[in-house]
Amino acid sequence: MSSASGCRVVVLDMQPIDPPIGGGRVRLLGLYHNLGLPTHYIGSFDWPGEQYREIQLSSTLQETDIPLSGRHFQAAAKIQKQVKGKTVIDSTFAGHAKLSPEYVDAAVGAARDADIVVFSHPWVYPVVREHLDRNHQLIVYDAQNVEGKLRFALLDDWGGPGTQIVRRVVAQEASLVRSAHLILACSHEDALLFERLYDCPFDKIRIVPNGAFSRQEGHEVGMQRRSLESGSKPWTRPACLFIGSDYEPNLDAARYIVRELAPRIPDMTFLFAGGVGDRLGSDPDSGLFPDNVRILGLFSPEEKRALLAAADIAVNPVESGSGSNVKMFEYLAAGLPVVTTPAGARGIEPGGEPAFRECTRADMVRNLLALRDSENVRSNLSENGRQLVRDKYSWEALSLKLGRLFRRHRETLALRMPRFSVIVPTYERYQNLMRLMKRLEDQSFPEFEVIIVDQSRKASEDEIAAFEIDTLYVHESIRGAVRARNTAAFYARGSILAFIDDDCLPASDWLEKAAAYFTDPEVVGLEGLVRTDKIDDPEFRSVGNENFRGIGFMTANLFLRLGVFNAINGFDERFDKPHFREDSDLGWRALDMGKIPFGFDVQVTHPPHPRSDERESHEERNRFFEKDALLLKKHPQRFKQLFLAEPANKTPEYWEHFQRGCQKYGVTVPEFYSAYMKKTLGAQHEHLFKG
Questions:
Q1: Bridge-partner residues for 239, per DSSP?
Q2: Contacts of 189 (CB under 8 A, 6+ apart)
Q3: Per residue in 103-127, pLDDT tens?
Q4: Which helix (H) or strand (E) holds 628?
Q5: Are 13 and 43 contacting, i.e. CB atoms less than 8 angstroms apart?
Q6: Which domains does the chain have, with CATH numbers?
Q7: What distance separates the 2 farthest-apart alpha carbons in the chain?
């Protein structure tokens, strides 16, 4: 089935992409517009009266929409009446698909010809299931939500028609989860639900979050505010925006804004845009609107960008639903300071600096007032939010990353899965990387792949390709060793991740010795021995772990099952920039999943680094200790054990950066730590502990 032009992708769903209005359509355009692979989207319209159409959405993404038949809409409308008017044309699609043979023929034909078949929802899967070939086609479930959970919340009626629909949805989704080679979840919370509801192995789940087009930021759109005010009273500043489709969790959030936020903050105008605004206007449960509420209704993508430019603040008080809220990424990309509930922030992993205010509904008024009254706070959140999207949540980067994942897994589909995926982050250490690759080439255990994430200025792909090893080389411009390891693990095919640093030299039997430990199913990970020298030479930074067994978990020689890594959501990227303690945090969380023995026979040599190298100087390395505060916040008991095991680090410089970290991460230092430091540093440093 492979084509001469590469891996052909078909994406199947029963809604259109264009125009990209609403979170589902935005995700479809964002993820599939730039895979670097020929991609064909087959969709339809979930309303009657449309015509067949074909659109070239990007240089690689073609959209074909085939209208459903009148009989199909009539059948769906009949069931919709039975569930009190709730939308069911999507969740009942498989049962009525035979009424729309033109759509079925197009979906089946496209699926048969594809190398990679993606189901954006489970609705179309039963229609084409018998025409798929798992041995030659990569089957992917791009789960915009956990539909079994979501449809239960929306449709269950205690044994009535709604419950019957939910049961069929659960069965369809369970079947697709079992069949798919890869599950793309929007958030870690959704990944956990897939495992709990469907016993889905974490090995085949990848987190592919929602995002925003970072090159189309709202404040760059030069449209005037008045263009959005036609048909409504002009609003006064500050303007607080809520965007949402006609969807029950959005309607619940909108009612809360109308009833609670708007009356309590009368000098702030609350703007409602999207289908939720029209629904709110006709909703008898919403009550009378306060004077500071404006309903703007549906909008085009261009109008949305103008609206994002016109608002001052955004709010997202949703408390239910599944997946993640695309509106959040669009707010952040536009530079809007945001106040959100934890449910509204679902699927957004925090960066190094706060990018939004997260709180419960009970504390939302206070946080909105804080933004209203502080230009400095708004400015900081605005810049941090933009940066977070550029670094982690731009559709441009997410689409390329997904295309690389698809290509890698499709091209190796017929091959035996490797036992190990060796993970190597690297930055400006070309010679070290070449030496490491030579050692890996000489490994006695052959069942492994190497995944290199190179953040150097110059790529070394050609040089890496010369080695006779199964290697995926990824070159990216955004720096961060923690990010690099997570990126590499995203592509991993091996059942065990083997972490090593680019300047390390593994023994020739490194992987062979490690493999023996994983014959025990209770072993979830392994610490290997990191050898070093010049331990007492002040001119060098030595890196070893013999005295820190079971507590340090150094990524210079650390193994973890891929399923466990995914189950605990990988490395916490808050430990990046500067990267430090991310390995301890990962190991401590993994210990809750099973055993992590120490393998003295699984050996790596870590050469000491001269302190004359700026990257290894005391001044530079001391900065890293701000991350101790974050480690303390997450693991207070285990941190105490590590703290006492590292007396050589307890210098005035350590305390200075540790205190800075406490302020940054909101950590209160227990009396034990300050008392220990006072005793260690002595009276001559008493000034460090005042205030």
A1: 269
A2: 346, 347
A3: 999 999 999 999 999 999 999 999 9
A4: helix 627-634
A5: yes
A6: 9-207 (3.40.50.2000), 218-393 (3.40.50.2000), 415-612 (3.90.550.10), 617-691 (no CATH)
A7: 87
